[in-house]
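Crash report, auto-generated. Payload:
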Amino acid sequence: MKSTLKLTLGLTSAMFASTAVSNVAQAEDLTLCWAAWDPANALVELSKDFTKETDIGMKFEFVPWTNYADRFLNELNSKGKLCDLIIGDSQWIGGSAENGHYVKLNDFFDKEKISMDDFVPATVVGYSEWPKNSPNYWALPAMGDVVGWTYRKDWFSKPELQKEFKEKYGWDLAAPTTFDQLKQIAEFFQKREIDGKTVYGASIYTERGSEGITMGAMDVLYSFGFKYENPDKPYEMDGFVNSEKSVKGLEFYKALYDCCTPPGASNSYMGEGVDAFKSGQVAMHMNFAFTWPGLQKDENVGGDKIGYFANPKGPDGDQFAQLGGQGISVVSYSDKQEAALKYIKWFANKDVQAKWWSLGGFSCLNAVVKDPGFPASQPYAQTFLDSMAIVKDFWAEPSYAPLLQASQKRFHDYVVAGQGSAKDALDGLVKDWTEVFQDDGKM
Amino acid sequence: MLNRTADSVARATPEPLARKVRGISDKGLAWLFISPTILLLLAINIFPLFWAIYLSFTNYRANRPNEVVRNVGLANYKRILGDQDIWIAMQTTAHFVFWTILLQTLIGFTLAWLIDRKFRGHAFWTTIILVPMMLSPAVVGNFWRFLYEPQIGLFAYAISFVTGIPATQIGMLSNVSLAPWSIVIVDTWMWTPYVMLICLAGLRSIPEYIYEAAEVDRASNWRQFWSITLPMALPFIMLAVLFRGIENFKMFDMVNLLTGGGPGSTTEVASITLKRQAFESWRTGYSSAFAIILFVAVFGLANIYVKALNKVKQR
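Recovered output after restart:
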């Protein structure tokens, strides 16, 4: 009886102890929320070093891009504790700051001597600051990203195509520097037989459901002269959003869609673009820079066959590109904020940032991207630098979601469905955006 | 055996509890049994409905937890009824409901009529016809998206083979004129078996002696169809139309998977608009008002329809 009791007590204690130990370990685990994409895999690899250094385990919650905003904004709005750290989209910063989802990082940065001057300025404004251009920081720039282009260098260098192109357009077939040139190249390749296969001009963003067509159209509109508002009078949009130059830009985007995209590309975003390029369907491909490391490694289209170029110039020589990317924030509802801040401190370290870049992440730290060896470190590094120097971003207001939905609808109705004119679409956009800002009491 | 078990349970029941249970009337006992279900129903159906009604009169936005919620009266309702986009979405929905029901009823009834002939192997063919209905809408939506694909899709190739139009020009999901029909085709393919099944039940319920009497009166097959088959199967057909009508009025999954409401807004049915307002634009109060309007519309139309159905049954 005695021995049975001892055994029972012993087993119970052992079970209790093992549960307690595992609870202690779990209590130190941090959950990081982000999109499910290639850089997330690189971050998993990188974070192993953090666990080694601190004994803090890392768990990851990655959600595909199509559900990323829905899933995590729901989580933040319901004050959920799932995420201790979140790499939230750049446009969420206003809403997340004003609604108290993110921890303000100013005091922490001061204490840990983390200076925002050490990061690429555009990424600080885009990913960290709210209100914009004010020293109020809610995130550490984590993943630099920007819309740029890839092209089939092997097709561009075919002597017979170069000859034919030169005869037709009067200039050498090469990566375009203006949007006019880009369209000429796209037209040239559209429905052309190359290596026994019909190919098409370009893959561009046309997706309706989340943010695709807005990212694509804006990427072009900026360089044509589009402005969100009167620089001297915030929220005054009439004459800026729907200016003559903006109309020309949107007409150009529609013309590019009509003339030079593959059949059925009416709902195409990052994944579909990568598929079109990888399968050898298109000569040029608009996409965020995060796709470049994967394409570079691709056996069929990577290596020497791929080239990169920054967004071309518009008719007046303006050159801008749509900002992507995200900052990393501490979720204010997390019970493990201290450990989460430790991760941010570790992530801001120069060596960690250098490794981040080498693993396929896009560092925003000046010390990494301004290193003399950086442009030669990857074939796309220089294009990334050039592109990051010309970025502009969509509204980052707390009401970014209805603002985005309005542009998605107006752009898709005009560009893909061919309803109305570019002027109608942009006038409608001014009306929709005005309503949103009136609802917010900002107008 | 059963009595012995009941006796042993009764004996095992503690005295005070047994006394209490003995004191409960049949009605009380019935309430006791159904109360968990009622509570669940109240919690997950009735409460959200009343909560949505309350929210529809406010400016509440789920992504602004710290914002003061104001009562805006009927402003959301006025705005919805004056919103051109909402009316376009309602028209798109009506177009979709009309054509799917028409096609499904015609094809479903014809199939049921043919199956009812009880030819050799009819049971096998019934099972084959029912297969699409048994698939998940998510699976159906995804594989039809591939079938419609202009470069690799079998549907485009089949049409190209028949018409001679190059397959790459058959953009079922990207063409403004074809996209609404692409959804009608898939919904008809998937749900015609359901209509067929209900119609078949109707046809099988017609007593054989009525046809025998008609034969004696030398009524032609055509006459028998118009005077016996159709009138007696009509309540079943109407029931199928009611079920499909309600389902298709709130259709979301298939449209979302196939076109996402595009190209442009050509296939944006009311449920897609509602989802965008509620979970993408986060206009919770506004979308609650829209949901209430849709609910009242479906509920009202269904009630009128049920009354008509009862009249037909009474004839």
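Post-recovery validation: The mean pLDDT of chain B is 90.
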